[in-house]
Amino acid sequence: MSIAGGLPNAVARATIHGCEALQIFSKNASQWRARPLPREEIAAFRQAAGESGVFPIVAHASYLINIATAAPALRAQSIAALGEELDRAEALGLQGIVLHPGARLTASSDEAISLVSAALGQVLKERPRGKTMILIEHTAGQGSAMGASFEEIAAMLDGVKDGRRLGVCLDTCHLLASGYDLCSTKGYEETFDAFDRLIGFERLEVFHLNDSKKPCMSRVDRHEHIGKGCIGLEPFRRLVNDARFAHLPMILETEKSEWRERGTMGIDPLDEMNLNVLRGLRDLSAGKQKIRRSGEN
Fold first, then answer.
1. Level-2 CATH architecture, domain 7-281
2. Mean predicted confidence (pLDDT) in 205-221
3. Which pTM value belongs to this model?
4. Where are the domains of the chain?
């Protein structure tokens, strides 16, 4: 949800959409600079979050951050920005920040993995009393982007001496685009068997639920509305009813309506559509929450 008008507004927007979990940007995702968070806004956000019942709440880190690069200036700027993102999330009481590990550019894959691990270890070591996690997001593998395989993510995590505050975010669009077949029953089972074997479900903290405009192994990250892309409805039905993941937040990153940046507090028709599709896929007989209709609080 957008933070237009102030961070507490994101919680209000989540509430009117009947959301159970929430993801925000704590700053402009396309800029290095971040406005300071006033104490009053932090307090108002924490109060709104506590009263709403929306939990957990995570932030997505800036897209500019690249801790896989060997370029000294960009690397230093990225590590500093990641630290700032973590500090902001900590102040807001968030569960974690979702981070794309970045692109290796001219570095080898092995070197990039070591660079990612070193950066994560540095940022966490500098904040020994923190609680907010860093959640490495599995990527679609466009260009030289790192993190498109479970093996790469496992190596990044294993390279950090104290990884208690490290976790993983899985994006359904990225999984398909990077070559993990979620569409068939066999492919779904093999995908999560591989994740558990290589990384472990105890590391999985968040899902991003997005359909994909592009087919399996396309290596192209293009989100589509739920059920209208190359994944289709059945894999999402399996996922929202998978008992192994019942405790995990599942976040939509699908396209919003054009007026989304105007600061409106109304229900976004596209968000409502996608949320209701996912709610409709839940097995209500298993005690899942009933579908919330438009306008319900």
1. Alpha-Beta Barrel (3.20)
2. 98
3. 0.94
4. 7-281
